[in-house]
Amino acid sequence: MTGYKNGIANGTNGHGGEVNGQTKNAPAYTAIENSLTKRQQSLVKDDYHVKGDVAFDEMNLWNGKLQYTNGINGTNGVNAANGVNSIHHNSKESPPSQISNFNDVMSYSYEIIKEIADYLLEKTSIRPKIGVICGSGLNSLADFLTQTDAFPYESIPHFPISTVEGHVGRMVFGYLEGVPVMCMQGRFHYYEGYPLSKCSMPVRVMKLVGCTHLLATNAAGGLNTKFKVGDIMLVRDHVNMMGLAGNSPLQGPNDPRFGPRFPPMTNAYDKELIKIAKKISVEMGIEKNIHQGVYTCLGGPNYETVAELRMLRTLGVDAVGMSTVHEVITARHCDLTVFAFSLITNKCPSDYDSDEDEANHEEVVSVGKQRQNLCAELMCKMVRAINESPQCK
Ligand SMILES: O=P(O)(O)O[C@@H]1C[C@H](O)[C@@H](CO)O1
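Structure tokens predicted for Purine nucleoside phosphorylase:
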């Protein structure tokens, strides 16, 4: 709790935020806490008491420089965390002069990404072919790796930190089914305050480290009424809602060393790998629990309204989450072959009288844990199949 509590409390000790150009003292944590309903309190407790230190410290890291330019900035919105002292400090990351929800591609130039890749390659002798991203509740996929070298994100130069419960926050190199892989145990989300280019920056690191494939997993809400909680959806395609609204990880100057200015996306998810996954699901006897479908990523962190869920269904979306799409776009831009699956952790109600529980992160993480072995088995078999495919040779 220290991070959140101290952070806000420091605000009252003369370190206010600035609202519409006026300095205001931040309210004490207890005042905020008291104004919440019991249910909100428990959600806040879960989110901030577990990871809050990290989330707030990450903000503190940018102490004095924190400016959201996406409609909430110092001049017409909130300029928070002025004067708040940092508790933990990721000294490797140079403070950005501005946090923009639009983009900071320039802060992750080819040279910086190469520096990160070289740093990792210097510290491990493993040379991964496949990059894996673990979704919420699916961190234990990395526990199946052998001969591991693990790097907490705060130890990697220029790396952000993962602030979400259920995301460990480290890059693990090792062998899965004898195949060299690197695995993100915890990813970065837009709602954590990182621009999309920063969320998907590790995919470019995977590329420069030598990976040819990206395997991404996520937790998602099931819109397709055929999907049950615990089922797996092989991602056939996505609808890039955030991109349609003008927010892309590729926004800004294009560096052709990564890929072309205008990359196609019609074959974003490799068809052959989807076929292989279906075959594997038959071998595993879980074909009834495996579907194919369309995923979309929304900005979060709130879950969707009924009207939004209805709209998404009308658009042909089968599962909704808060990640993956920008990672896949970044991967395809630099010509990684992509396979992704969603674990359906909750159903999405389509009417106001639904007796489904409201979506909540505890359930998401808990279903992830219940299905982690199944997901890991599928992942292991996919890695083995990819390694045996001519593409990977
Ligand atoms: O990292 P993923 O996409 O698996 O996590 C999903 C989306 C949010 O981060 C979280 C919501 O419960 O789960």
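DSSP finds eleven helices and twelve strands in the chain.
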